[in-house]
């Protein structure tokens, strides 16, 4: 078990058992020390756990948990790609998509659930540039989708 997986366990979290691809694309691609991770929805073993749209009445903590689950799926793909999460040297960029209506104004706060996990796990190396937007739909009507670009050794 990697040091990062130990940190996850200490936080009461674990990597999902799988991270299925839904269409004709790669879950990840490596290039010159960079790992490009395709967007992952808030699913566990192929089943979405939070559905959209997120509304102002949706509890922010639940929405952030959805974003955190997306990040856990990204970490699963990272381990699959690199063999160990300990090879991650930096989280460079995170992109977040929140399934919400046009009047929802706190999409970036939802994506903090993913950002916070990366920062808690990787410390300063987890600090990243980010985009967070609201969209009218996501695959399987998921509440949140997150992608990322990481550097590795």
Percentage of residues in DSSP E strands: 25-35%
Gross geometry: globular
- Main β sheet profile: 5 strands, mixed
Q: What's the total number of strands? A: 7
Average residue pLDDT = 97
**What fold name goes in the CATH topology slot?**
60s Ribosomal Protein L30, Chain: A
Distance between the termini: 18 Å
> What would CATH call the homologous superfamily?
RutC-like
Q: Element order, helices and strands?
A: HEEEEHEHEE
Helicity range of the residues? 25-40%
Question: Which structural category do the helix and sheet elements fall into?
Answer: alpha+beta
How many helical elements? 3
Overall tally of structural domains? 1
Assign the CATH architecture: 2-Layer Sandwich
Low-confidence segments, given as residue ranges, are none
Strand order, sheet with most strands: 1-2-7-5-6
Radius of gyration: 14 Å
State the CATH class. Alpha Beta
Write up this protein.
It is a single chain. Helix 2 (60-82) packs across helix 3. Helix 3 links the parallel strand 5 (88-99) and strand 6 (129-135). It is globular and about 40 Å long. The strands form two sheets. A five-stranded mixed beta sheet has the order 1-2-7-5-6. A two-stranded antiparallel ribbon has the order 3-4. The chain has three helices and seven strands; from the N terminus they run H-E-E-E-E-H-E-H-E-E. The longest helix is centred in the middle third of the chain and has 23 residues, at 60-82. The mean pLDDT is 97. It has a single domain (3-21, 30-152), classed as 60s Ribosomal Protein L30, Chain: A. With 153 residues, the chain is α+β, with helices and mostly antiparallel strands. It has helices spanning 3-10, 60-82, 107-122, and strands at 28-31, 34-41, 43-44, 47-48, 88-99, 129-135, 144-152.
């Amino acid at each position: 078990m990697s040091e990062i997986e130990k940190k996850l366990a200490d936080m009461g979290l674990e990597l999902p058992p799988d991270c299925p691809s839904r269409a004709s694309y790669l879950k990840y691609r490596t290039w010159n020390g960079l790992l490009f991770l395709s967007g992952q929805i808030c699913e566990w073993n192929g089943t979405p756990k939070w559905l959209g749209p997120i509304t102002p009445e949706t509890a922010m903590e639940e929405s952030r948990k959805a974003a955190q689950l997306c990040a856990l799926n990204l970490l699963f793909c990272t381990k699959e790609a690199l063999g160990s999460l300990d090879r991650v040297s930096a989280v460079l960029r995170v992109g977040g998509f929140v399934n919400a209506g046009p009047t929802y104004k706190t999409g970036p706060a939802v994506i903090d659930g993913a950002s916070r996990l990366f920062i808690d796990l990787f410390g300063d190396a987890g600090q990243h540039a980010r985009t967070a937007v609201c969209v009218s739909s996501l695959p399987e009507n998921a509440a949140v989708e997150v992608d990322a670009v990481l550097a590795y050794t």
